[in-house]
Amino acid sequence: MTRLEQEPVCAVILAAGTSSRMGREKQLLPLKGRYLLEWVIATALIFPFEAVFVITGHQSEKIREKIGINASRLKWIKNARYERGQSASFHVGWRAVMDTGCKGAMFFLGDQPFLTEETIRFVFRTGQRRQQQETAPFAIRPVYHGCPGHPVFFGNISGLEVTTVTGDQGGRSLLRELPQQHLLPVSDPFITFDIDTEADYQQAQQIAAALEKSTR
Known about the structure:
single chain, alpha/beta, 10 strands
């Protein structure tokens, strides 16, 4: 068995926000026959993650009840402190990964439905290769035309403290502190597209319609 096979990777989907700018639960926005969060979960489950942790908070029970995906690797975790910002969810997801023994984790945002499989695979495989080559903690972040996005791969994270992650920063403060950061240029504009407002949602509906048309 190779080292690559011995070091599984977990996925964490951050989806605990209150959707204050939207005015309704954006996790449950309908988008071409599926809920918004369902798009992200279904895409993550395509890949061989050891577990896919979905961190919910606001309207947690309602969201879990509505999402119609059943998979043994799918793990729902409620962040009781979701009002403290995205960093609280990051901590919850991080602890869940630590409990599995995984040395690598990819963090997704629950409001980014259009990440391509090609992009995720590129980040995933690059992270796995670097885990074979490096021993220090590192991060890999995709970049589109100079703008960093998600998902972010954290590697060699056993025992890595995340006490510096506070407020609504998510993992950004941790990224600044890691000695090894790798920016990965990609041709995927959707790594920076998330849905926060009604205008974003309208744009997402147009994108989903165009993607559906292009695959016919």
